[in-house]
């Protein structure tokens, strides 16, 4: 069969039975655990702390014995490394330093800067073949075929999903893939539009925001967007059409093209949508995704929502490996058959991080913005939570409780300084209340940065939870 007539990019791998996937994952997991334990001090310390040995991981189910890692752990690791005068990734690094070929700084969506090193292998043939392969599955499922030209709208210096836009762009046009790539620098939209027209681009790869912005820009400039040959838009990098209501229809109308979303996070290798938009197909032969309960940390049944935890099985990310990385994103895994015939489980559309974005007074409030200020201001312990309430007149109010260190002598002065910084960061009026270290119960509220009590029911539930926590001595009442 000619390549373009194939239904799937990789018919064998994309239609493995669930049992075949399981066996493959089990074999790869054992290899990965062995590698990571022996090469990465960060993971070895995690294993040793609970007396876990690589040989304790024999079956896929054993994966739950491995402690999860989240951004807070990585941030602490970076802090330790810098304090010791080492490279920020020195502790997690699983290859000798001289094998690092490039370093990709990413601010990430949480505002925590990471430097992700990539090895020579990841940046040359082997890495490109691998990356090209998993990107090709995504683009093929979206309906792209050899001869299509994709305008790739990312700034190549930065990193996307911890892997580097550079490597992704190189992979997308590597011999392992089939596309013709048109790398476009974000920010020069007039130039991008002109180039897309000249070369006859048929697809666009960008963030949902940029895909929204371009049609607005084109209209303002009198540029006929539908006069282009664009037939497919693939979005990535932010919550997109799969989770934002109405966005797909809006983009499809504006571009006159079909829109496909992808899910991206560190440790999740590009789950993608097929033409049925039944969720994101997971690339299970190179990636284990689990859904766990954010509180109990136990696996949840198929179809139930929880926190997405990812393990990369491949050699991709060999320098900076991910083993049970807790993305803190919400998702569910679906195992029922997709009409497209692909057998890998699907990730149900992700309505945002557990504690992400909430609309207050018509504005978006991101706890990440508060987290950044609190994390960077000496005198704060890093603990805080945001209470969104509604007054009798129906107006939203925001109160942010922030813990301060015992070393803070003038609490009033500190509060007014912090209030200024936080208001600037969230561009919303918010009251700041300072509470002494230990008042917020650390671990208990870590996953819940925002408490929305704008309904009576939510308010009652919250008050009961606080009372119970206070009885157990976890939080101080107040
Ligand atoms: Zn499908």
Descriptive account of the structure:
The protein is an alpha/beta fold. It has a domain of 114 residues: 2-Layer Sandwich (GMP Synthetase, Chain A, domain 3), CATH 3.30.300. The protein has a 5-stranded parallel sheet. The radius of gyration is 23 Å and the shape is globular.
Keywords:
about 475 residues, alpha/beta, GMP Synthetase, Chain A, domain 3, five-stranded parallel sheet, globular, binds zinc ion
In short:
The protein is an alpha/beta fold. Helices cover 32% and strands 20% of the residues.
Radius of gyration: 23 Å
Mean pLDDT across all amino acids:
84
CATH superfamily membership of the domain at 358-471 = ANL, C-terminal domain
Number of strands: 19
Which CATH C-level class of the domain at 358-471 is it?
Answer: Alpha Beta
Q: Helical stretch count?
A: 13
- The rough form would be described as globular
Report the biggest beta sheet as strand number plus sense, adding barrel if it closes: 5 strands, parallel
Low-confidence stretches: 108-112, 158-163
Percent strand equals 15-25%
Question: Could you give the topology of this structure?
Answer:
Elements: H1 11-14, H2 18-39, H3 41-49, H4 71-83, E1 100-106, E2 114-119, H5 120-123, H6 125-141, E3 149-153, H7 165-172, E4 180-184, H8 189-199, E5 203-206, H9 208-221, E6 232-235, H10 247-255, E7 258-261, E8 280-281, E9 287-292, E10 306-312, E11 325-331, E12 333-334, E13 346-347, E14 358-360, E15 363-365, H11 367-376, E16 380-390, E17 396-404, H12 411-426, E18 431-436, E19 450-452, H13 456-471
Parallel strand pairs: 3-4, 3-5, 5-6, 6-7, 16-19, 17-18
Antiparallel strand pairs: 1-2, 8-13, 9-10, 10-11, 12-13, 14-15, 16-17
Helix pairs in contact: 2-3, 6-7, 9-10, 11-12
């Amino acid at each position: 069969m000619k390549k373009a007539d194939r239904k799937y990019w990789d018919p064998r791998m994309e239609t493995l039975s669930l049992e075949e996937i399981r066996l493959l994952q089990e074999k790869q997991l054992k290899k990965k655990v062995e590698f990571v334990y022996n090469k990465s001090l960060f993971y070895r310390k995690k294993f040793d702390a609970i007396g876990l040995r690589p040989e304790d991981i024999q079956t896929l189910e054993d994966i739950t014995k491995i402690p999860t890692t989240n951004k807070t752990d990585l941030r602490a690791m970076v802090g330790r490394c810098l304090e010791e005068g080492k490279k920020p990734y020195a502790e997690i690094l699983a290859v000798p330093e001289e094998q690092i070929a490039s370093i990709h700084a990413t601010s990430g969506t949480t505002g925590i800067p990471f430097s992700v090193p990539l090895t020579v292998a990841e940046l040359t043939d082997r890495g490109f073949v691998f990356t090209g392969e998993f990107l090709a599955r995504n683009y093929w499922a979206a309906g792209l075929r050899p001869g299509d030209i994709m305008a790739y709208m990312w700034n190549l210096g930065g990193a996307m999903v911890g892997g580097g836009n550079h490597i992704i762009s190189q992979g997308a046009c590597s011999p392992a893939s089939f596309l013709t790539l048109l790398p476009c620098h974000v920010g020069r939209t007039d130039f991008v539009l002109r180039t897309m027209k000249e070369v006859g681009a048929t697809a666009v790869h960008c963030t949902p925001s940029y895909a929204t912005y371009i049609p607005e820009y084109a209209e303002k400039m009198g540029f006929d967007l539908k006069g282009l040959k664009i037939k497919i838009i693939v979005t990535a990098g932010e919550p997109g059409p799969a989770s934002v209501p109405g966005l797909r229809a809006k983009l499809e109308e504006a571009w006159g093209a079909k829109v496909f979303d992808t899910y991206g996070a560190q440790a999740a290798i590009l789950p993608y949508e097929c033409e049925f938009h039944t969720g994101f197909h997971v690339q299970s032969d190179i990636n284990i995704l689990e859904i766990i309960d954010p509180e109990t940390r136990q696996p949840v049944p198929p179809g139930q929502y929880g926190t997405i935890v990812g393990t990369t099985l491949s050699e991709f990310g060999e320098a900076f490996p991910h083993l049970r990385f807790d993305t803190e994103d919400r998702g569910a895994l679906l195992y029922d058959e997709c009409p497209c015939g692909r057998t890998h489980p699907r990730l149900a559309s992700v309505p945002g991080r557990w504690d992400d974005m909430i609309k207050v007074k018509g504005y978006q409030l991101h706890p990440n913005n508060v987290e950044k200020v609190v994390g960077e201001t000496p005198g704060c312990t890093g603990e805080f939570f945001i209470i969104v309430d509604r007054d009798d007149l129906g107006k939203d109010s925001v109160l942010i409780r922030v813990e301060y260190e015992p070393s803070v002598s003038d609490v009033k002065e500190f509060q007014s300084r912090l209030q200024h910084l936080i208001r600037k960061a969230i561009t919303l009026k918010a009251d700041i209340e300072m509470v002494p270290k230990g008042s917020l119960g650390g671990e208990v509220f870590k996953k819940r940065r925002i408490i929305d009590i704008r309904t009576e029911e939510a308010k009652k539930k919250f008050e009961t939870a606080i009372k119970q926590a206070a009885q157990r001595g976890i939080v101080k009442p107040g």
